[in-house]
Amino acid sequence: xxxxxxxxxxxxxxxxxxxxxxxxxxxxxxxxxxxxxxxxxxxxxxxxxxxxxxxxxxxxxxxxxxxxxxxxxxxxxxxxxxxxxxxxxxxxxxxxxxxxxxxxxxxxxxxxxxxxxxxxxxxxxxxxxxxxxxxxxxxxxxxxxxxxxxxxxxxxxxxxxxxxxxxxxxxxxxxxxxxxxxxxxxxxxxxxxxxxxxxxxxxxxxxxxxxxxxxxxxxxxxxxxxxxxxxxxxxxxxxxxxxxxxxxxxxxxxxxxxxxxxxxxxxxxxxxxxxxxxxxx
Length: 281
Known about the structure:
The chain has about 280 residues and is of the alpha/beta class. The protein folds into two domains: about 5-30 and about 250-280; about 45-245, MTH777-like (Rossmann fold), CATH 3.40.50.10160. The protein has helices spanning about 5-15, 15-30, 45-55, 70-90, 100-110, 115, 135-145, 185-200, 210-220, 230-240, 245-280; strands at about 60-65, 90-95, 125-130, 175-180, 200-205, 225-230. The chain has a six-stranded parallel beta sheet, sandwiched between helices. The longest helix is centred in the last third of the chain and has 36 residues, at about 245-280. The protein starts with a helix and ends with a helix. The relative contact order is 0.18.
């Protein structure tokens, strides 16, 4: 490499402003248009996918939406991918929230996955019960009887007017209960109130930071598996064939890491080039 080339590399890659601009572009672009850079599928994610795949078409699934808006980035992509797989199997979903922020995040979920929800009929293919107060007591009550716990759904519809809720009412009517939560207590509630007394299959969707505290339930076979954070979401999105925030997040990380490596390599070229020039002088 001649001196003129080294000087050019020094000038271009020595600019901090250029580095910041490129890093911001690498971070943002995948969220506007996910690239879908391949990621390896973990055995745990594959296990969950295969279990859901084995469910009978048209089965009933219960889904707890228990997280705040701040936790959407990690949990919602997993939920959307699961909804995609379930709706493709014509499974019917009863959504509920034992947290006050539930109605807000469910509204955002429907907006994010409008392509999925718009193909299904509310009240027939899915319902959202809304926020049900009472925490663990509410989980126990819903397991015994939905109709005995709530009288109207999140939108003010009488429960008895919704066709789906004339087909299911208690925990044993569901083939699977999915718990997407940003807190650890929620998983405890459903293990105690749904799995232990009724042996309902549970699937956990957890934040990366709390996954270790939930892991014992999976190890004890009290849950069929667990999806954790954006990495699991990216893997699941690849499996169900729908690019979303999970893959976009992985794309963003991959691009920024690659860019940093390029600048590290260029920085070394500049450093050794300067030493070479000093030696020659």
